[in-house]
Amino acid sequence: MSNKEGKEVKINIKKDVDSSELEPSDEAKAVEADSAKTDAGMAKLTADLEELRQSMLRSQADFANYRKRIEKERFEDSKRATARVLEGLIPVIDGFEHALAAHREAEYENYRKGFELIYKQLLDNITKLGVERLDPVGKPFDPHLHQAVDREETSEHKDGTILQVFQPGYVFHGRVLRPAMVRVAVHPSGASKEAVN
Q1: 133-197 has which fold?
Q2: pTM (whole model) above 0.90
Q3: Which helix (H) or strand (E) holds 23?
Q4: Block means of pLDDT (10 residues each) for the chain, length 197 residues?
């Protein structure tokens, strides 16, 4: 090498290097070990954090499902309780209908009007609660909604048509509280008699 004045400067480089000088010092080893421990600790903390996050998400989903199930069960319980009350009111309605049918004379007119008013209020209130009255005259017989208590052989109506309702039926949110008791038309052929018997 040369300096600014053009003189050559020699640098002595030791060619023989002591191997102990190349090894890191104890302090450097400790720093390196701490760094490795810190990296391992960070990886474990990150894994633990992710596991806790996943656990929290599962718990939130489980709670949301639980809340939906409880709300559905409460709604179903409410419907069952209302259905029980309505089943108890149906015979009362029947009693009103029988009393109104029995008192048709003029002397009972005011008495009848009071019954009619109470009867109408009762029907209106159970309709508001979700009850549907089945009065299926002229409709086809449905064994899920109707109970055939009599049959009439006739060719004037289609086979299976309901001719008369002895007692109306009631349905509450798709559940039959009481089927309608009906008289059903049957064609007077031998085949239909064998099918019924």
Answers
A1: Nucleotide Exchange Factor Grpe; Chain A, domain 2 (2.30.22)
A2: no
A3: none
A4: 55 53 65 74 88 92 92 89 83 79 68 80 85 90 92 87 91 90 85 47
